[in-house]
Amino acid sequence: MNDDIKVVPELTSILVVDDLPIVRFSLQRILTKAGYRVREAEHVAGALAVLAEDTIDLILCDIQMPGASGLDLVKAIEPRIPDTSVVMVSSLEDAEIAIECLQQGAFGFVLKPFQPREILVQVSGALRRRMLEIAFRDREAQLAQKVREQTHEIRESRQEIALRLIAASEHRDNETGMHVRRLGLYAAEMATLLGWDQDRIDTIQAAVPMHDIGKIGVPDAILQKPGSLTEDEWVIMKRHTTMGAAILKGSTVPFIKMGAQIAIGHHEKWDGSGYPKGLKGEQISLEARITALLDVYDAVSNRRHYKESWAEDRVTSLIQEGRGKHFDPQVVDLFLSNFDRFRAILNANPDEAHDEDPGI
Predict the structure, then answer these.
(1) What is the CATH superfamily name and number for domain 173-356?
(2) What is the pLDDT of residues 115-132, one digit of tens each?
(3) Cβ-based neighbour number of residue 77 at 10 Å
(4) 245 closest CA partner among 277, 269, 221
(5) Which residues are registered as beta bridge partners of 39?
C-alpha cells in the first residue's frame, strides 16, 4: 500500500514560516526548485491568515520567533492535522521544544544549519505520512459508514422478522398492526430512559411486538368472541402466554429469546395475581413488566370496534392505580414522568383506517 502513496510536488502547497527573510528565501528556493508551490509568512499570525485563505498541505515552521512560537502554531492547527502537516525547523538548543511539537502532532523536525537534501527528505516523508494518515482516516470513515448501514439493515430485518412472525395471529385477532408497531416504539423509548445500550434497545423493540404471538393457537370462537368469555374460555385464552413462549423457545437469536420471556410474562402482575405462573415482583422479567404497562396504555388509549378510546386523564389514573399492583412501581414512575414522550409516539403512529374495519 505504501508504494501507492506518491507525493506530487506540483500538486502540493507548502507554507514556510520564519521571522528571518534569509531563511524564508533559502527554504522557498529549495522547495520551489523541487517543484512545490510555496507561500511564506514571517510570524504565526501571518501563517494563520494564509491558512484561512488557502489550502496548505504542509507547514515548514521555525520554533523560536518573536511573539507566538512555532509550538503555538502547532497547537493552534492541531484540529487540522493531518490535512495540514507540520515540520519544525529548530536549533540544537530547541530540541526539547521540538519534541513537544512532535507530541502535539508535528510530523518531524530539521536541525539548523540544514542542508537542502535534509529539508527535502523531511518534507517528502511528512507528506507521505500525511497521505497515509488521511487514507487511513478515510478508510475508517468508510468502514464506520458501512457498519452503520449494516446495523440499520440488521435493525430493519429484526423488525421485519418480528412483524412477519406475528402477521398470522394479527389477522385473527382484534388488535391492529399499528398497535404492535407502537409497542415496539414505546419499548425502545422506555429502554432508552432506562439507560440501556443501543443493541439491547433494538432487541426489545423487535421483541415486544411478538408478545401475543401465542394467540395463533387460540380458537377463533374464543379469540373473536364479541361478548365476555366463560371461565373455561378464559382458561384457554390464558394459554396464549405459554403457547407464545413455546413458539419462540430454543432460539439463539437475542430478540426471539427476549420475545419468549415477554410472551410468557406480559400478563404476570407485580402483586402476584397474574398468569400463567403467578410470578411476583422481580420474579417477572423486566422486559415483560415493561410490556405489561405499555400494552395496557396503548389498548385503552386507542379506539377499537368494541370500545372508544379513553381520555388521557382516565388512562393515567388507571396506570397510577395499578402501581404496585398490576405494574412495576419504578416502571410506572418512569413512564408517567416522561409521559409526553409516549404520547408523542401514540400521536405520530395512529391506526390506519382499514385497521378499524373488522371485515378486512
Answers:
(1) Hypothetical protein af1432 (1.10.3210.10)
(2) 899 899 888 888 888 888
(3) 23
(4) 277
(5) 15
